[in-house]
# Entry
Amino acid sequence: MIKEKYIALENTDTIRPDSIDDYIEYGGYSSLEKLFSMPPSEVIDKMQNSGLRGRGGAGFPTGMKKKFTYESCETCEQRYVICNADEGEPGTFKDRPIMERNPHKLIEGMIIAAWEIGATKGFIYIRAEYYTATKLLEKALADAREKGFLGKNILGSALSFDIEISLGAGSYLCGEELTLLESLEGKRGYPRIKPPFPAEKGLFGKPTLVNNVETLTHLPAIINNGDEWYKSLGTEKSSGTKIFTISGDVNEPGYFELEMGVTLRELIELTGGMKDNIPFKTALLGGAAGTFVDSSMLDEPMDFENLQEKGATLGSGAVMIFNEQQDLHAIMGSILEFFKHESCGKCVPCRVGTSMLVDWHRQINKKPLQQEDLVDRMLAQSRFMEKTSLCFLGKSPVMPLVSAAKYFKNEL
Ligand SMILES: Cc1cc2nc3c(=O)[nH]c(=O)nc-3n(C[C@H](O)[C@H](O)[C@H](O)COP(=O)(O)O)c2cc1C
Ligand code: SF4
# Structure
């Protein structure tokens, strides 16, 4: 059976999450000395060469994002590092165990990012439901400050940097980076129009790096072990590890950190196989804004490129498994309800479109319209929304709809 490989979850079986001494004893914060011996541009080059890509869903190359942020405004004295800990994508539960089991790893990653882009201030934007994670992070921040890993001239370096926690109210849309910035500034969670991107004009108009929790926890390992080491993990174009969160009709749902390129079949094996031995029917990859696949995809390596080539998505690493007895009509209904509920209503295609999708879907199998006509209408509507919606939420229903129709059109 395939073995887990820990980077984000390194030493989580050994260290106590509320003990900075445990973390330090197992090599924690050791990357900082090496970090401060390198100029930021050299660290950014290393990140670019490592091939690390964002783990929050979009898979954007992390080194490139930092380069943009670093170079965007030469005269700006204030820059921000923001950790996106909103974790709102359905079926995704990977950032929470990182923060609850390894909070110092996240803080160390944020210090590295701050050095790279020249930030003096960081924020962890975390949903208020994550109470335990928030409490552990608060303690970890206080302990890190006391030991001199945060604050003025960290370890005698030129970096002065501190981190604050900001609580979100659980809106899915506030996980989108520009909406997150609005919320962090104390405004209503409406998305901003991009460009400008956060790298150029982010929090309070300053250059801002927004990264997911999991992404940031990979930085210490890259500094300690090198970019070539990181590149040797995973697949040719998707390096490193990924935490997959597996839910649904399997024996032991859970989260597993594995090298990129693991297959769906291997993931199901890791969870003890299909529950009650009822055969596999489909998996939804990447959450509600993800794609359905059928059994023809069971042996495909799961990485950014290969899945994209096959018309699927890796997204945040959420994998929902459904067996043959599941009702796809009901599953699609709850996905469409979710988008309707989370739409902020700012633009018409999404505000009206998400409601229309729900209404049409409810009419399926009720006369006079035929199932096929309604599904075709929904597909056309979601494609229209993809082209015209202001932000990615309105562009998302097309993903589960089109992919599900590809395999199971007469069951929607
Ligand atoms: C509707 C929506 C919700 C999102 N929710 C999250 C989230 O909860 N956590 C997250 O890290 N990224 C989320 N994202 C992606 C962020 O906009 C952004 O790409 C990410 O935080 C960048 O970090 P990364 O480069 O490390 O992946 C969401 C995007 C959209 C469109
Ligand atoms: S696409 Fe939806 S969520 Fe995004 S701005 Fe428009 S109404 Fe709001």
